[in-house]
Amino acid sequence: MSRKPKLELTWIGKDIRPRLEPRILIEDPELSYHAPARREGDIFDNLLIHGDNLLALKALETDPAVRGKVKCVFIDPPYNTGSAFEHYDDGLEHSLWLGMMRDRLEILRNLLSEDGSIWITIDDNEAHYLKVLCDEVFGRSNFVRHITWQKKYSVSNNYRGIASIIDHVLVYRKSAEFKNNLLPRSDDAASRYSNPDNDPRGPWKAVDYLNQASIKQRPNLVYPIENPFTGELVRNRVKAWKYERETHEKHVEEKRLWWGLRGENSVPALKLFLSEVRDGMTPHNWWPHAEVGHTDESKKEMISIFGPNNVFDTPKPERLIQRIVGLSTNPGDLVLDSFAGSGTTGAVAHKMGRRWIMVELGEHAKTHIVPRLGKVIDGTDKGGVTEATGWKGGGGYRFARLAPSLLEKDAWGNWVIRKEYNPAMLAEAMCKHFGYTFAPSTEHFWMHGASSETSFIYVTTNSLTFEQLRAISDEVGEARSLLVVCAAYESAAERLPNLTLRKIPKEVAGRCEWGKDDYSLKISALPMMREEDEEPAPARPGAAGDLFDDAERT
C-alpha cells in the first residue's frame, strides 16, 4: 500500500535558518515596576523584554523555567509584507515573511505547555499561507479553528471593490491535551431561563418535545401522551416525539413536562434547568464586533492611554484579547506575546490575573508599554476590560534587555569573551548553552547550575590543574556528575569519572552567529544571499587560549 506524499509549503530560502545565540536577560530596575503593597493573589513575576524578538524567544527557549510552561501564545505579527519589505518585489517579500515567521513559530511551539495553544491574528494577505505553515510546524491534527473577527462595523461608500471588514485568528494547540474554556454566559443567554411556576429546582427554559422526524420515519417514538390538566390524550399527527416511551415516563415522574400554567399548550415542552447545564457557553468561530470590539474601539483605548498623537496603526481591542485569554487560560497561567506593540496583551492578562511575558524591539517598549503597565498596576487605567474584570490594581513586572553577544573578535581575529561579562553572567550564559538551570549554590563554589538532582555545572575563566580538579571531583562524589567549563585544564583530569571537561570559548565558538543583534522584519536586518541554494557560511571559530582576563571564582 503506497503512502501519500507529504505536502509542504515551499519558498525561496526555506532551508536557510539562523544560528541563534541563547542570550541571557539583564534586568533594568529603573524600568521595572510593582505596586507598593502586596495583596493575596497579586502576580509580580511578569516580564517585559526589550530587544529583538527572535533572540528573546531563543533566550526564553533555553530557560527551563519558561520552556514548555506557556499556556497561551498570542501574536499579532506584521500583516502586510509590503510594509515590512518595501524595497523588494512581492514574491521575495512573501518568501522572507514566511521564513521569518517559521523561525519564530518553531520556538513558540517549544515554549508551549502540552495543554497550551497559540492564537495568531492575520489578514487576507498571508492568512492562507500562514495556515499551511502552521500545519507544518504544529501538525495538521493540532489545528483547532479558523476564527473570523469582525474588526470593522461599517464600510465607506466611497470604497471601490470588495471591502474587508474582518481579520482572521488562527488557533493551534501543542497537543491533544489542550481543552478550551467556555465563554461566560451572557445576560441575553441567562435571560432565557425563568421560573414562572416557582419550581424549587430553580430557573429553567422550555425545550421542544417534538422530533424533526415524521411518524413514519420514527414509529418507535409515536405514542399518546396525557395532558394532566385536561386528561386529554395527545397523539402524534405529523412528527414523532423526541424521546422513547420509557424516557418520557421518567420525565413525567420527575415533573419535567411543561404544559403552560393551566395546561393550555397543545403539546408539552421539556424543562431544562439552568443548574443542570454547563457553566458557560460553547464558543464558535464568528466573533462579531459587538462581542469582542473593533479597531475604532481599540484606537479610542489608545487615545485614552497615550493621547491623540501616539496611536498605533493596528491596535487590538482589549475585549478581543480578553476573549482569547479567557478561552485558553485560567488564573495564574502564563501568557506570551512576542510582538507586544502597545502592550495590550500584557495589560489584559494582568487584569485577568494571568502571568505574562511580552517582547518588543521598538523604543515604544519604554515610551508606551512601560507607562501603560504602570497605570494598570496603579489601578488608574479605567478603560478597556478594567470594569469587566473587576481590576483594582496591584502586582508588578520586571523590565529586561538582552545581554550583548557573549563572544567578540580580538585584534588578532580570535574569539574571546566580551569584557562586559562578569563571572555570574558568564555562568548563566554557559547554563543556557549546555541546557542547565542557572542556580548558583551558596554552599558549593563549583555548583552554578543543575540539569537534574545529581547533574551540575561549574563555569570559570581560570585554567585548572589536575590537583584542583581532583579536589573538586572528590567533593562532587560518586553519586553526582559535574560539567566543568573552563579556559584550560590538564589533560590528566579527563580520567576523573564524575567530571566532564569543556574549554571556553572553543567549545561554543562555532555554534552561533555572534554579534548579530537584529533579526527583525526589516530589510536592513537581512543577510545578503549569494545564490538561491547557498547557506550563509558558518562563523569561523577563533583560537581558544590564554586570552581571558583573570576572574575570581564564581
UniProtKB/TrEMBL annotation:
Span list, region Disordered: 530-554
Source organism superkingdom: Bacteria
Enzymatic reactions: a 2'-deoxyadenosine in DNA + S-adenosyl-L-methionine = an N(6)-methyl-2'-deoxyadenosine in DNA + S-adenosyl-L-homocysteine + H(+)
Keywords, alphabetical: Methyltransferase, S-adenosyl-L-methionine, Transferase
Any Gene Ontology biological process: methylation
Molecular function GO labels: DNA binding; N-methyltransferase activity; site-specific DNA-methyltransferase (adenine-specific) activity
Cross-referenced Pfam families: N6_N4_Mtase (PF01555)
EC top class, as a word: transferase
Annotated InterPro entries: DNA_methylase_N4/N6 (IPR002941), N4/N6-MTase_EcoPI_Mod-like (IPR002295), SAM-dependent_MTases_sf (IPR029063)
Classification via SUPFAM superfamilies: S-adenosyl-L-methionine-dependent methyltransferases
Residue ranges constituting the DNA methylase N-4/N-6 domain according to the UniProt record: 70-368
EC numbers, comma separated: 2.1.1.72
Gene3D superfamilies tied to this protein: Vaccinia Virus protein VP39 (3.40.50.150)
Name listed for the protein in its UniProt record: site-specific DNA-methyltransferase (adenine-specific)
Protein family according to the UniProt entry: Belongs to the N(4)/N(6)-methyltransferase family.
Organism field: Rhabdonatronobacter sediminivivens
Entry annotated with the keyword Transmembrane helix: no
